[in-house]
Specification:
Two copies of one chain form a homodimer.
Chain A lengths: L1 H5 L13 H17 L6 H7 L4 H7 L3 H25 L4 H18 L1 H9 L6 H27 L8 H13 L1 H4 L8 H15 L5
InterPro entries (chains A, B): HTH-type_TetR-like_transc_reg (IPR050109), HTH_TetR (IPR001647), KstR2_TetR_C (IPR041490)
Protein name (chains A, B): TetR/AcrR family transcriptional regulator
Pfam family, one (chains A, B): TetR_C_24
Chain lengths: ~210, ~210
């Protein structure tokens, strides 16, 4: 399921990972972590899924945690780029919030297996890695708060609790990774469109 | 963390489970599954956490899957009861949707450790148990759709995609289990109030 998913995105996922053997191990790790959980997965399982020996894995990743950290870092970097691009983009706050939600939903739908690992295995990261990831999440939150705050300041939105509303908007989009099913009746873009409409209502855009 | 959580609810959680040894095992299983994942947890781990021998565990639960099924069944029964009570209750659709969201959010916040296991370990259930749980989830969805549909019919709400909006409402509430932190700045009731307000905007109540 997820191996197919990994090649479906509009950009080639994991293209930032080289050499190809390391990329193959990362894709195998995502599949294994999503299927069995981080703690139930061994580096031997991951090497086996990638058609490699454990010794070959260690050339690229010293520990299982290093694999998780790499996955989490790439996923969080991507999320932050999407949200900051939307926040910094052209257009009104309404247009930018609409774009942020569509992009964030699409990522969580198209890359739902990766997103589940990224979102649900934070506790398994080593402390210094967790600190780094938490900082990326803080900046993602800030990007959404900024769009909403600017919409309020411009008189486009009517929101009394900006941090709480930003939290809810991100949470709504993130949970797409849990329920989205590639065999289901809605495409990632359709979910993005539905959700962008609901979020614009949450901030009372255009009322 | 979660053991404390389990005694914090307004009703005594797991009170439907008897005898006390079985209840103790269930609480231990929730903690272990939440911390390490279902597949990384052994019945020996669970018995140990409960201060019991593996042999004593087998008197109450024949397999690890039976423990997960019991947890999942109780959690889903509770969710369904909350949502159907709200749907069948007195008052306008606006009042009933408000009540449903507050109750559903409160459950996912107060019982966040249990809710994570209930929501994230569905794939680990045996097929016949999964079928049973999927049916409970279908009925929960239906309760929320019914409230929204009745609100539209009564002219209280303006919603073009009732199933999609119901899905989003449930998803928003469920994801509280992922991010809610008992040490955080918002109480379960405060999150419920915020979310009820956002959901009523999603359905354009009172516009």
């Amino acid at each position: 399921m997820s191996t197919a998913e990994e090649t479906d995105g509009e950009n080639t996922p994991w293209s930032e990972v080289t050499p190809e053997a390391a990329r193959r191990l990362l894709v195998a790790a995502v599949d294994a972590f999503a299927e069995r959980g981080y703690h139930a997965t061994t580096t031997r399982d991951i090497a086996g899924r990638a058609g490699m020996s454990p010794a070959a894995l260690y050339i690229h990743f010293k520990t299982k945690e290093e694999l998780l950290h790499r996955i989490s870092r790439i996923g969080h970097d991507r999320a932050l780029t999407l949200l900051e691009s939307a926040a910094d983009g052209e257009g009104s706050a309404t247009e930018r919030l609409d774009g942020a939600v569509r992009a964030f939903v699409r990522w969580h739908a198209e890359r739902h297996t990766t997103a589940r690992v990224v979102q649900y295995e934070l506790d398994a990261l080593a402390e210094e890695h967790r600190t780094e990831i938490v900082e990326l999440r803080r900046r993602s939150d800030a990007a959404v708060r900024r769009i909403i705050g600017e919409g309020v300041a411009a008189g486009e939105f009517d929101v009394s609790d900006v941090p709480g509303t930003a939290l809810a908007v991100l949470s709504l989009c993130i949970d797409v990774a849990r329920w989205f099913n590639a065999q289901g009746s809605r495409t990632p873009d359709e979910v993005g469109e539905l959700y962008a409409g609901l979020v614009l209502r949450m901030v009372a855009a255009g009322r």
